[in-house]
Amino acid sequence: MISYKDIIKSEIIRTYITSADESLSALGFTEHSFTHVLHVAETAGYILKTIGYDEHTVEIAKIAGYLHDIGNLVNRKEHSQSGAVMAWSILNDMKCDAKDIATIVTAIGNHDEGTGVPVNDVAAALILADKADVRRSRVRNRDLASFDIHDNVNYSVIESVLQINEDRTEIELKLTLDAEFGSIMDFFEIFTERMLLCKRASEKLGLKFKLRMNGQQIQ
What we know:
By secondary structure, the protein is of the alpha+beta class.
């Protein structure tokens, strides 16, 4: 089996992630480089490990998390599908097990809102890990006067914590917002679809999704 460590050591994959993020930077999107993909990988692994999945499945989820955004190298539009195809090629060249490739490719191809569906447990964990990574440090634009609503909402999130309860029945996304830059209503204006996808992903894993903002339970 190809390990998560093998994947993060690959200079080819590192080049693709770097170039994909450079394209997004040119388009004015938030950070999608190593800070993001490593966070998503570790969070996806945390979700499945915490609710009792075996180490192999946890490893697969981490690999999917690390590779999930490489499709931005091709184009931001439909990047989950192009990323899935790229991941298949990379993992096939690395002689990864076909069943593992299938799971990873399916997860990547279904991670984004609009086209994404939590069709398997790894996809569900990837969706939750990716959509929960909302934070001020992902905003590249430092000219506050030129912020659009996406900049404002992302910049307003001072802290983001995704946590599973001790009974392993609920998963809660806790957000701390600075109201100077974005309100709860602003958040829902651009993130409603993502939160609904998180709800479906949680249900796939047998969990109830909860959202708490500034100490107030929203869902």
